[in-house]
Amino acid sequence: MADWLTGTLLAAVALAGGFSVGSAFVALLIVLDLIPRLVQLTQAHRRSGLFESAILLGALYWISADQFHWILGWPAWLLLVPAVFQGVFVGMFAAALTEVLNVLPIISKKLRLKPYLFSLLMAMVLGKVAGSLIDWLWFRL
């Protein structure tokens, strides 16, 4: 009975975590306006559905690859192709994030948080560093 309850609780927590991470990813894509900007830059307005499908299929592929421990036996030189595409995605995502960071001073001014802007930015940076260190030192070692 305890095993069934533990398994059910674990499944519920895992499902809730997956929904929260997935929702945060989708919200970030919407806030950053990543897909419409990409469509605008490439002037491929008719193919915007293709961009959306590529994001969805890429997420599903990498979720499956991680979950089922898929290993590709490709030679190192052939892995350069997906590495370039991953680098382009990360670069575009980082560029979109820097544009969003320009919103913080405007929001802090409207909400009268201007005196606390430095503290807000430092809390974000330190939280990211602390989370990365905890993940690296606690879960990776």
TrEMBL record:
It holds the Pfam family SpoVAB. Keywords: Membrane, Transmembrane, Transmembrane helix. The chain crosses the membrane at residues 12-35, 47-64, 76-104, 116-139. The keyword Transmembrane helix applies. This is Stage V sporulation protein AB. It comes from Cohnella candidum.
